Amino acid sequence: MRRAQVWRWQIPMDAGVVLRDRRLKTRDGLFLCLRDGEREGWGEISPLPGFSQETREEAQAELLQWAQRWQQYGETDVPVLPSVAFGTSCALAELNGELPQAADYRAAPLCTGDPDELLPVLAAMPGEKVAKVKVGLYEAVRDGMVVNLLLEAIPDLQLRLDANRAWTPLKAQQFAKYVNPAWRDRIAFLEEPCKTREDSRAFAGESGIGIAWDESLREADFVFAAEPGLRAVIIKPTLTGSVQKVREQVNAAHALGLTAVISSSIESSLGLTQLARIAAWLTPQTIPGLDTLSLMQSQLLRRWPGSPLPCLDKCALEPLL
User: Fold this and answer.
1) Between residues 291 and 8, which one has the greater pLDDT?
2) Cα(109)–Cα(4) distance, integer angstroms
């Protein structure tokens, strides 16, 4: 007998979490649980404000309709909204035993600029030493000095940088000016440095710093192509769509010799553990970008290994179906 259940949840965020000039006080989302006989599968549907094309209310409406159809008829069409497509496909993949259990719980730690804080974290990391720095929030010169300091202090460090299209070409040049050219090859990539792809391409050519596409993947005119200076694509499944679409994008990137990084959209611990499984399955050689649980005040249903946050059970969820 088939049964679909839907819950709504809300997790308080740590103070100071700002996304595109918007303070995020809580993370709000939905869980879907599908049962068919003894089999069970879960999925998370949590559009990210300011980044997702859909609101949580729109996602909830489509999810409830989809869940009711699935409960009545079984297999149904892939939802239109990306977050709903991703969550329902995860639930179906778990239900059908198609989502491998092996997970990659490594995470590139987010660094605020103090090498002393980063050293013990990197020492505990197996294999390559990779950290991430958000740039574009302050002055470009300051960002360049911080990145240069980290690369100088930790000789085997690879840095991933993310600018979220914050810079004009001039600001991007100011950033690069303060990064020693001898160390620029240890910047694994800089995500979307400028407001347009054309300016980002020009920055890569002028500075020798490799770039990655993130927001570009979700634009209507984007096509996967190898380009000078392009090293990686950042795939955020909650913003992308179904697991199948995520897999197609990973395959397209790998076919061009690009690195594909599975990355978080600040999902709950349940969603993050599923992303870790997807990363181990589709991008086993690449550390995923899943270091966002520390922004929250609790976990939900499934624990992230090693996290000290309390893990809430179903009593914290609001049933909708």
Assistant:
1) 8
2) 36
Question: For residue 18, what pLDDT is reported?
Answer: 72
Q: Which of 129, 132, 171, 236 is catalytic?
A: 236
Q: In this prediction, what percent of the chain has a pLDDT beyond 90?
A: 79
Angstrom distance (rounded) from CA 136 to CA 215: 15
Please tell me the distance from the alpha carbon of residue 140 to that of residue 178, in angstroms, as a whole number.
9
User: Average pLDDT of the chain?
Assistant: 93
**Is 195 in the active site?**
no
CB 181 within 8 A of CB 209: no
Residue 177 annotated to the active site: no
Alpha carbons 305 and 173: distance in angstroms, whole number: 40
- Residue 109: DSSP 8-state: -
Residue 27: what residue type? R
Rounded to two decimals, the pTM is: 0.93
Q: How confident is the model at residue 112 (pLDDT cuts 50, 70, 90)?
A: low
What was the pLDDT predicted at 200?
Answer: 97
Question: From residue 283, how far is each of 75, 159, 211, 247 by CA, in Å?
Answer: 28, 18, 19, 10
Task: Tell me the angle at which helices 169-177 and 140-153 cross, rounded to the nearest 10 degrees.
Answer: 30
> 308 to each of 1, 15, 269, 299, 311, how far by Cα in Å?
38, 18, 12, 9, 9
Residue of 153, 111, 106, 112 whose CA lies nearest to 127: 106
Q: Which of 25, 134, 171, 245 is catalytic?
A: 134
